[in-house]
Write a structure and sequence with these properties.
Blueprint (H helix, E strand, L loop, with lengths): L2 H7 L1 H19 L2 H22 L4 H14 L3
Helix pairs in contact: 2-3
Length: 74
């Protein structure tokens, strides 16, 4: 089996491997907390990019988050 075929059939494992490798490198280069902040910001950027890729409305999404945040507590 060629590497590209393996990557295609094991997409989630490949993504997990890449994320783990990048996170490990970030921890070695920086401290754990700095690496964690970078990953959180990257996840937020991914979410915003995915929203726009799907043709979403950022204002409506922020309103949904605001409504959830206000009504989640006791």
């Amino acid at each position: 089996m060629h590497i590209l075929e393996w990557i295609d059939t094991h997409r989630n494992a490949t993504i997990g491997l890449c994320v783990g490798l990048i996170f490990g490198i970030l921890i070695v280069v920086w401290s754990f907390w700095k690496a964690l902040v970078v990953l959180i910001l990257a996840a937020i950027g991914y979410g915003i990019g995915r929203l726009f890729d799907r043709g979403g409305n950022a204002h409506a999404s922020l309103d949904r988050f605001d409504n959830w945040f206000r009504h989640r507590g006791p």
